[in-house]
């Protein structure tokens, strides 16, 4: 498509957009079962629209917004067991993880930096490693898909800059034994980064509901940084990730002087320069609006629905659960996985098979009626 010489009317352009996006799956259709995103909360959408012009890349111009971002970071830190945190609302889990690795690398100051991480870690760490010149040292998983802590210990060497643990793995929603990883990190004087991009907005509420999930946050002294994404279970519009550091020195180690900004020179730690203030304000607004009890209600419903769904799956011949769900993620396998995936996609389901299973994420837009429809299709396909 070429850059048009003359403009078209808004009506025509919108019409074309409607036509073209007709191919998209939408969250409200209930067909998207394999995504960690959801339809954002209407209040968060309103906040984003109202403050759409705010740029946190030049905070001297938007001093109020900068203060709100700091408060959002403080509220996230407090959810994660820390009185005062240092960090930013960023573009997502990928940027948050890259910043964490950057801080670990810069503070370690070794020539050939190595990072130890579970085989279940998100691919954002591969991007981080490539960009930052860090070698990834993988640790294998136990039978329950948590990282093998003994193997993590065996991998520690002179060049190790830190350890990564996952609180809510991308594929299965498994929470690593973060308490043991934290002890290990303290024993060896290494920082532990916890990737709770998904679990951060689930685990604190699930624990309050009585679910037996390991501790994962700053209450464990070895944990020095946490990724927590409001644009997943936080119900804030994309892009909204979060990186929280325990100590200021982590943030300082990745801050670059931005000398020419209209609002005056600043030290900037994020990867993006110009960045949306509106989304950071929406994080703040959603936390204020829903509060702990509001998020707890959402998590309660989705955790219960995930367990019901797992129970139903177990009764379908030809498919099997990979493991009992820990969070609101249910993954199942089948001997005929590829055919199953193809047929489910042909019926309009937004799912994907990877690592030998299909992952269903019971996000806020996923209702029981959608899962019932999905189960009907699954039964029909597996019966043939
Ligand atoms: N970390 C984990 C555990 C994730 O599951 C994901 C995304 O699914 C990410 C990081 C990356 O997040 P984003 O896609 O927002 O960059």
Keywords:
384 residues; alpha/beta; 4-stranded antiparallel beta sheet; 12 helices; 13 strands; 41% helix; binds pyridoxal-5'-phosphate; PyrdxlP-dep_Trfase_small; pyridoxal phosphate; Probable L-aspartate decarboxylase; MfnA
Number of helices: 12
Work out the strand percent. Answer: 15-25%
Task: Report low-confidence residues grouped into runs of 5 or more.
Answer: none
- How many DSSP E strands? 13
Which cofactors or ions or other ligands sit in this model? Answer: pyridoxal-5'-phosphate
What does this structure look like?
Catalyzes the decarboxylation of L-aspartate to produce beta-alanine. Keywords: Decarboxylase, Lyase, Pyridoxal phosphate. It is an enzyme of class 4 (lyase). The modification N6-(pyridoxal phosphate)lysine is found at residue 232. The chain has a seven-stranded mixed beta sheet, sandwiched between helices. Strands 10-11-13-12 form a four-stranded antiparallel beta sheet. Strands 8-9 form a two-stranded antiparallel ribbon. It is built from twelve helices and 13 strands. The model has no long low-confidence stretch (mean pLDDT 97). The chain has helices spanning 10-21, 42-50, 63-79, 93-108, 124-132, 149-155, 178-188, 203-208, 248-252, 277-314, 337-346, 368-383, and strands at residues 86-90, 114-118, 135-139, 160-166, 192-195, 223-227, 241-245, 256-258, 266-268, 319-321, 329-334, 353-354, 357-361. It is an alpha/beta fold and 384 residues long. It is globular, with a radius of gyration of 22 Å. Pyridoxal-5'-phosphate is lined by residues 36, 92-94, 97, 122, 124, 166, 168, 170, 195, 197-198, 229, 241. Pyridoxal-5'-phosphate (PLP) binds at residues 36, 92-94, 97, 122, 124, 166, 168, 170, 195, 197-198, 229, 241.
């Amino acid at each position: 498509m070429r850059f048009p010489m003359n403009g078209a009317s808004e009506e025509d352009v919108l019409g074309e957009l409607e036509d073209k996006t007709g191919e998209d799956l939408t969250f409200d259709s209930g067909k998207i079962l394999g995504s960690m995103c959801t339809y954002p909360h209407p209040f968060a959408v309103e906040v984003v629209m109202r403050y759409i012009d705010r740029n946190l890349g030049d905070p001297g111009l938007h001093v109020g917004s900068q203060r709100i971002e700091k408060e959002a970071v403080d509220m996230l830190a407090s959810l994660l067991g820390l009185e005062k945190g240092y960090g930013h609302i960023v573009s997502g889990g990928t940027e948050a993880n890259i910043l964490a690795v950057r801080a670990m690398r810069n503070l370690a100051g070794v020539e050939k930096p190595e990072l130890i991480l579970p085989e279940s870690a998100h691919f954002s760490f591969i991007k981080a490693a490539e960009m930052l010149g860090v070698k990834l040292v993988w640790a294998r998983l136990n039978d329950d898909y948590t990282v093998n802590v003994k193997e993590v210990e065996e991998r520690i060497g002179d060049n190790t800059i830190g350890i990564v643990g996952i609180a809510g793995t991308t594929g299965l929603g498994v929470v690593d034994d973060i308490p043991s990883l934290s002890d290990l990190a303290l024993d060896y004087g290494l920082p532990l980064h916890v990737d709770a991009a998904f679990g951060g907005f689930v685990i604190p509420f699930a624990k309050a509901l009585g679910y037996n999930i390991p501790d994962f946050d700053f209450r464990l002294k070895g944990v020095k940084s946490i990724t927590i994404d409001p644009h997943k279970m936080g119900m804030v519009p994309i892009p909204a990730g979060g990186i929280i550091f325990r100590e200021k020195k982590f943030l300082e180690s990745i801050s670059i002087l931005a000398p020419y900004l209209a609002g005056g020179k600043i030290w900037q730690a994020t990867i993006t320069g110009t960045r949306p203030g509106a989304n950071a304000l929406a994080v703040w607004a959603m936390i204020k609006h829903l509060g702990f009890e509001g998020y707890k209600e959402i998590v309660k419903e989705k955790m219960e629905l995930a367990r019901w769904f797992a129970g139903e799956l177990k009764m379908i011949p030809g498919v099997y659960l990979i493991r009992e769900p820990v969070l609101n993620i249910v993954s199942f396998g089948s001997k005929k996985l590829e055919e199953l995936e193809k047929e489910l996609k042909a019926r309009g389901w937004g799912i994907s098979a990877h690592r030998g299973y299909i992952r269903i994420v019971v996000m806020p837009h996923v209702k029981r009626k959608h899962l019932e429809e999905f189960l009907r299709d699954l039964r029909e396909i597996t019966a043939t």
